[in-house]
UniProtKB/TrEMBL annotation:
Family annotation (InterPro entries): HTH_LacI (IPR000843), LacI/GalR-like_sensor (IPR046335), Lambda_DNA-bd_dom_sf (IPR010982), Peripla_BP_I (IPR028082)
Domain of life: Bacteria
PANTHER family: HTH-TYPE TRANSCRIPTIONAL REGULATOR TRER (PTHR30146:SF146), LACI-RELATED TRANSCRIPTIONAL REPRESSOR (PTHR30146)
Pfam families linked: LacI, Peripla_BP_3
Protein name (Swiss-Prot/TrEMBL): Trehalose operon repressor
Native organism: Rodentibacter trehalosifermentans
Key word Lyase present: no
Gene Ontology MF terms: DNA-binding transcription factor activity; transcription cis-regulatory region binding
Record carries keyword DNA-binding: yes
HTH lacI-type domain residues: 5-59
Alphabetical UniProt keywords: DNA-binding, Transcription, Transcription regulation
Amino acid sequence: MEKNYTIKDIAKLCQVGKSTVSRVLNHDPKVSEETRKKVQAVIDSVGFKPNRSARAMRGAQNPVVGIIVSKFNSSGESQTLRAILTELYRQKITPIIVESQFDEKQVARHLNLFKQRQVDSVIVFGFSPLSEEILQQWQGNMVVIARYFKDISCVYYDDQGAINALMEKLYTQGYRHIGYLGIHNQDETTGRLRTQSYLNFCLQHHLVPNFALTELDIEAGYQHYAKLAQPLDAVLCATTSLAIGTVKHFQESQQMLPLAYIGQNSLLEHFVPNLISLDFGYEQTGNRAVALLLEQIHGNKTIQQQLVSFLLS
């Protein structure tokens, strides 16, 4: 594997101080021509590319971080992204935000684009079925959100535990005909993992599965609720968007069933009785992701995985 040289490595090879290497990189006129040529020759010979984000944090230029979201219309991703942007702006870091639309190839294209623009620090929302191989081709700083990777720093959710907790809450309240509105399995976490948790609970508690999988938007939730079989005495939604679509159907049919969902929404809480919501830790995730990335930018390359806990209301 190609070695990722640091300023410290270049300084050692040149037998000069790190500050001298930095001054050469920043075109400081106070550096002698002889020293500049010697340092530049080593830089060219090893193919050293300075960490743009780290240099920017030291005031050499404007810091930039690339962010790859899955879907802009995702309520959960929007909450996490808002927390990320708040913290980046506080650090005077400029974000470049792009959308993958759950397409692994699109993620690879975006990473290549960032590389071409010399952006070496990225945050990737990993709801799509991303391969670790694609992500490991990235040579800079990286934090992945929502997915666990053994060899990549990540902040991830307890998708299966959250669905299980909501099902357990409904079950203990006496409901046995629990319908589930979920997301297509192309979404690895919000989709496949949450659906599998619902099916596992049904199997363990001898319940008949009753579910429909759809896209991540309000209208899809509204339309697919009708695909759930009767009888129904409660509904569980994988996301806030699906829950809002379900409530729209409730209102039109004048049948307001107990509803549980992952997320929190003040309008739903105000208008829907018997509502069970779950704080999934979206804001906390955004803050942790930025903190991990800043550690990498400042030189701490230790791989860290952090699981964000949820809070059942």
